[in-house]
Amino acid sequence: MKICIDAGHGLINGRPTGAVGNGIIEDGWTYVFSKRLAHYLRKNKHSVVLSRPGFNNVDLDIRAKTAVGAQCELFLSIHLNAANSGDANGVEAFIVDNDQRSKTIAEKLVGIVANAGLKNRGVKPDEQSHVGKLAVLRNTYKKMPAVLLEVGFLTNEFDASKLTDPRWVEDLACTIAKSI
Q1: Is there a contact between 147 and 102 (Cβ–Cβ < 8 Å)?
Q2: What are the CA-CA distances from residue 154 to residues 1, 40, 51, 83, 134 (Å)?
Q3: Residue 171 CA: distances (Å) to CA of 29, 104, 113, 115, 116
Q4: Which of 20, 80, 92, 147 has an alpha carbon 20 to 30 Å from 5's alpha carbon atom?
Q5: 71 CB burial (10 A radius; 0-12, 13-18, 19+)
Q6: What pLDDT score does 131 carry?
Q7: pLDDT by residue (tens digit) across 88-144?
Q8: How many CB atoms lie within 10 A of CB 35?
Q9: What domains are defined for the chain?
Q10: HEC states along the chain?
Q11: Above 90 in pLDDT, residue 19?
């Protein structure tokens, strides 16, 4: 299977564009996690395309065009969530409308992260994200299943303790790769 892994956000002029909290910078965490996930996917004989091959930001349209142009069979965008309250926690995923192909994969991925110890917040239509309709999903889902996975809340101390545990992160990347 050919999979596009999209590390959410990215630096612009050396500054983060994603969330920051509890010592975690989303831009860097998603890049490192995406690289680990790609490693395990390749070990499992999948072909992997990285839409953001470095720490710097890549335009959302280019990310989608990369996946479509490479004729990927799955688009997976990795993110970390944030909230004003430290109480918000858990894993959730976003998909376009009720795209069944994407929903099936999203439910599986959310279940894996929940089984690794985070609260299951479910799968939601992208309109319910804090920014509304998500361009990377909207520009890919007609060609392949497309999921935006919010692995946890970096603003929550419990989630942050998991996200900063190298063993937990490595095990999660390995488990997700085996499930695809």
Answers
A1: yes
A2: 31, 24, 23, 8, 20
A3: 15, 22, 10, 12, 9
A4: 20
A5: exposed
A6: 85
A7: 999 999 999 989 999 999 999 999 999 999 999 999 999 989 888 999 999 999 999
A8: 15
A9: 2-179 (3.40.630.40)
A10: CEEEEEECCCEECCECCCCEECCEEHHHHHHHHHHHHHHHHHHCCCEEEECCCCCECCCHHHHHHHHHHCCCCEEEEEEEECCCCCCCCCEEEEECCCCHHHHHHHHHHHHHHHHCCCCEEEEEEHHHCCCCCCHHHHCCCCCCCEEEEEEEECCCHHHHHHHCCHHHHHHHHHHHHHHC
A11: yes
pLDDT in tens, 68-100: 999 999 999 999 999 998 899 999 999 999 899
On whether the pTM is more than 0.85, the answer is yes
> Tokens 């050396």 correspond to what residue?
14
